[in-house]
Design goal:
This protein is α/β, with parallel strands linked by helices. Helices cover 45% and strands 16% of the residues. It has helices at residues 7-21, 74-85, 99-102, 118-126, 128-131, 204-214, 231-253, 258-263, 266-269, 281-293, 303-326, 339-350, 354-367, 372-384, 388-401, 406-417, and strands at 30-35, 40-47, 50-57, 64-66, 91-93, 113-117, 141-143, 146-151, 154-160, 170-174, 179-183, 220-223, 300-301, 334-335. The strands form 3 sheets. The protein has a 7-stranded mixed β-sheet. Strands 8-9-10-11-12 form a 5-stranded mixed β-sheet, with no helix packed on it. A hairpin with a 2-residue loop joins strand 8 (146-151) and strand 9. The termini are far apart.
Length: 419
């Protein structure tokens, strides 16, 4: 059975990639307000170097909010909404389960009716990070294929397009306004993100082709993580997906790899699609090749087992559980990466248990000394703790293993100026 990766780890990973590749990330938390017209407003929510778009739609039947962003910025989003509309959402529609789209559901309390694909509720109940938010984050109404709402003089069509990004992706189509909120299905001038455990990247072309056939040609697409798209942008995006995924399959079938793609100039050709997103062309092709290489049974994700051990026996239990799987004769069956440590370290930082966070980050570095993100998290952690000498120490080490990394170069300069 497919398992969904721990949402928090996925989002932290995405955030760190974005932060690495942008010269001047936004200061956070931050919420920007973009008024579209009298009824529609887009809220751009920034977190850890990247952003998520939420969409509000108002009228006499109540305020509708599509996605709520990350938990950390939820209170600020709520303040902006109350200032603009003088009321809270009556309805919240989630485009899929990822925590950067659902994390602030509970900020609005039990009053809003939360609507989603039926798979999303199941996933959220099983996801241990989201389960800590309580029932006020969970969907109240679920559907499978399509749900139509008639609110504020609009026909709002919620339509399922599952199978590529996650198993719970929907679009929210405001038919009269010709506006569609796409969640993470559509990016403008960018490669999409994906999890090998939550969807199927090789279905992206098929799914987006279906979406393109559905969309009116004068549509405005409000995308989850990029600026808005029009119909022509959508067709370009669809064609990019079909062509790059076909190239990847052909490369794999010919027993070629990344060196072939680089030498033929294919990676360079597609770098134009790095314009807005956080996925680099190199990573897009490499990750897709890796998916094709791992065509056997899905590996077992151990994050839930680590979390259960943590709850029962504390941080020592967490480490013991990790060692158990690490030393298991069946170790190849398990999905074990540095991001278990990155995710749980960040988890403790948010709870302000900095001692536990530091222990986990350092343990992760010991296990994965060549993983640049092991240094990334420690640098970020020590800077947040104003321990700049330690941050500088790990920044210098990160530069050795990632000499072209723009983020660490910028941090090194910043830390040296703090002396």
């Amino acid at each position: 059975m497919k398992k969904v990766l721990l949402s928090l780890i996925v989002i932290i990973f995405i955030s760190s990639i974005y932060a690495e590749n942008k010269e001047k990330p936004k200061k956070l938390p931050r919420v920007e307000v973009h008024k579209i017209n009298d009824q529609f407003t887009k809220f751009t929510v920034f977190w850890s170097g990247y952003f998520v778009n939420a969409l509000a739609f108002d009228g006499p039947d109540g305020l509708v909010l599509v996605d709520t962003g990350i938990a950390d910025t939820g209170k600020e989003l709520k303040k902006k909404i109350l200032k603009l509309y003088k009321k809270s959402p009556k309805y919240i529609i989630n485009t899929h389960e990822h925590v950067d789209h659902t994390g602030a559901n509970n900020v609005f309390g039990m009053a809003p009716i939360i609507i989603s694909h039926k798979t999303m509720r199941k996933t959220m109940v099983e996801d241990f990070i989201l389960s800590e938010y309580g029932s006020d984050s969970l969907p109240d109404m679920c559907f499978e294929n399509e749900l139509v709402l008639h609110l504020n003089g609009e026909e709002i069509i919620l339509k399922s397009f599952t199978g590529s990004h996650t198993e719970s992706d929907i679009i929210v189509h405001f038919k009269n306004a010709k506006i569609i909120a796409t969640g993470d299905l559509v990016y403008k001038k960018a490669f999409p993100s994906f999890s090998a455990y939550a969807g199927d990247v090789f279905k992206y072309g098929e799914i987006v082709s279906k979406l393109a056939k559905y969309c009116p040609k004068d549509v405005i697409l409000i995308n989850g993580h990029t600026s808005d798209s029009n119909y022509n942008d959508l067709i370009d995006y669809k064609n990019m997906l079909i062509e790059t995924l076909a190239i990847t399959k052909k490369t794999f079938n010919n027993k070629e790899g990344m060196e072939y793609l680089k030498n033929k100039g294919i990676i360079e050709k597609w770098k134009k699609w790095e314009k807005e997103g956080y996925v680099r062309a190199n990573s897009w092709f490499k990750d897709n090749l890796d998916v094709l290489k791992n065509t056997g049974p899905k590996k077992i994700i151990i994050t839930r087992y680590l979390y259960n051990a943590l709850k029962k026996k504390g941080i020592k239990g967490f480490f013991s559980e990790y060692e158990k799987y690490k030393n298991s004769p069946d170790v190849k069956k398990y999905d074990m990466t540095y991001f278990e440590f990155g995710g749980f370290g960040d988890y403790f930082e948010r709870k302000k248990d900095f001692q536990a966070a530091e222990k986990i980050y350092l343990y992760g570095l010991k296990e994965y000394p060549k993983e640049k993100y092991a240094y990334f998290y420690l640098i970020k952690f020590y800077m947040n703790q104003n321990k700049n000498k330690l941050a500088l120490k790990y920044a210098k080490k990160m530069l050795i293993i990632a000499p072209e990394n723009k983020w660490v170069k910028r941090k090194l300069k910043e830390l040296k100026n703090m002396k």
